[in-house]
Amino acid sequence: MPRKIIIDTDPGVDDTMAIFLALCSPELDVIGLTTIFGNVHTELATKNALRLLEIAGRADIPVAAGAVDALTGPFEGPVPTVHGADGQGDVFLPDPAGSAIELSAAQFIIEQLRANPGEITLAPVGPLSNIALALRLEPRIAEWVDEVVLMGGNALVPGNASPAGEANIRNDPEAADLVFGAQWQVTMVGLDVTLRVHMGPEQIADYATHGNPMSDHITRILPHYRNYFESNYDAEGIFVHDSSAIAYLLDPSLFSVRRWPIRVGTQGLGRGKTWPATGGRLLPAWESRPPVNVCVGVEGDKVVALAAERLRRA
Ligand code: BDR
Ligand code: CA
Fold first, then answer.
1. What's the whole-model pTM score?
2. I need a surface site. Which of 70, 138, 145, 261 has the fewest CB within 10 A?
3. Pick from 150, 258, 148: which is nearest to 194 by CA?
C-alpha cells in the first residue's frame, strides 16, 4: 500500500520539484496539496499548486488554500529574486482550469487525518502556519497522524533567510515552535542536509532529455533559481531543499539522524532559529518537548540520483 501524504507547500521552484517527485513515486499517494505563503503569497501559491497538478495530469488531487499571514503577524513578503515573481522562475504560466476546494488547508488536514487515523503523513515544505492552525483547531491530529516530515530549520549550521534562521521557519517561528512541541513524531530535513544535496549543471541538463511534461517544466523554471544560487553560493547549479524531504520519505537510509528536542527562537536576532538541545541536562524550555528526528547527514548524490531516476521514468 502506498503511503498517503499531504504536501503543504508554497510553490516555489524547489516545491515544484518535490511535488513532482512525490507524484512520480509509487511508494507515495499524494492525497492533497495545501498551500501557504512563503516563496509567493498564498493566492499565487494556490494557483501554482493547481497548475502543477494540471501539468502532471493529476488535476484529480484536491488543493486547499491556507493561511495568508503568520500566526502573530503579517507575511513579510515573497522572494522573487529566488523563485521569480510568479514563483515559477518567471515563466508566467496561464491560469489553472480548476480551483481550490471550499475547505481551508487546516480544515482539510483535520478532516483527512480524522477519517484516516494512523495513515497519513504530513510533508510541509513551507512555513508551518497551516499545520499549527490545524493543531490549534484539533489537537487530536497529533494522535491521528502517522508522522510529520518537514523541510525547514537549521540545527548546526547558519540560516539562509538571516544568519540565524531558515526561510520556512523564519516566516512563522511561533507556528514552528508549536509544531516541534506537539506530541507527534516530527522529522526535520533542514539546511544541515539540504545544502549538501547539490545538483550540478550536467544533472540539470539531463532533465531536458526525459521528455515528459514534469521534467520539461522543471527544465523551464530552473534557470532563474539556478542564477540565484550561482550569485549567492560558491557552486555551480542548485541545492535541493524541498525534494530532500520527499527523498527522506522514499529512503530514510540516505540520511543520518539525531534525536533532540527543539525550541524555535521568536525574538530579536535569533528569530527563526531552530535550537536543538544537543546535550547535558535539559533546561526548562526544552523539558517535556518530544525528541525530533533531526537530519544531520545525507548521501546527497544518491538523493539527486533518486529524484532524477523517478522523473525520468514519469
Ligand atoms: C525553503 O525556503 C523556500 O525558499 C524553499 O522552497 C524551501 O522550502 C528553503 O529554505
Ligand atoms: Ca518551499
1. 0.98
2. 138
3. 150
